[in-house]
Amino acid sequence: MSEKLTEKQQKTLESLLDSKLEIITDKLCEIDRKVEDASKSLSFLSNKVDDALSKLKKLEEAKKVSDKEIVKLKSDLKVAKDCLHTYQAALNDLEQYSRRECLELRGIPVISRDISRENTEDIVKHVADCIGVELCSDDISICHRLPVNNMPAQMETRSSYKRRPMNPTIIVKFVRCKKCKEFYRARNILRGKTVNDLNLNLNTGERMFIAESLTRANKVLFSKALQAKKDRHFKYIWTSQGKIFMRKEDSTNVIQISCEKDIESKIH
User: Fold this and answer.
1) In what residue span(s) does the FP protein C-terminal domain sit (predicted)?
2) Fewer CB in 10 Å around end: N or C, the chain?
């Protein structure tokens, strides 16, 4: 074979190389287009990322503002709640003060078949005789039975409220606070006595109680304190001028219960 290519062979080779080069060129052009498209896509994505970062920054700034507003709203809400509790406590104290001449007699059965004709004033006088307190009609402003559903549901934890039907409580408003206090101080004389001792022809043998007339809120609180007394083995619980007091033993200090938190923090 001759070392030199013939003219025909040279043309054939050139034609083949041109064909291959054209293919390579086309592929390079295609790669260039893809690179250009990729570059455009990257640029688009970069703009999107920048836009997203900008929006994220704005959101973070807005969140900081919102967080400050939330903190302020929480603070305002706490102040509002504290004010509400203060107003509720003040209203409760005012209502309790308005009951300072009132007592409740519990556990006494209805004497008359027609409760509307029952002489509750006469019953109160018999209770006064039983505890050794002089009482006349002029000492009583008004007295009547309370509806059974007037008691909060929580009060039914007391043994005296567990029986059905419940004896409606008699509420008494005295003309003078002094007579009311005298009547209330003599309540312990009823220990060991029953309604049979009232000389009203009642032979049920039920116990009777004299209690201060508490507001609905104070009755609920007293009921919870009474349950705590049983659970934590306290010896005494009582009320004085609408305030609730407890004592674990004769030698321990008196504890005043003003709210539910006191039951958790003071009763051990």
Assistant:
1) 215-264
2) N
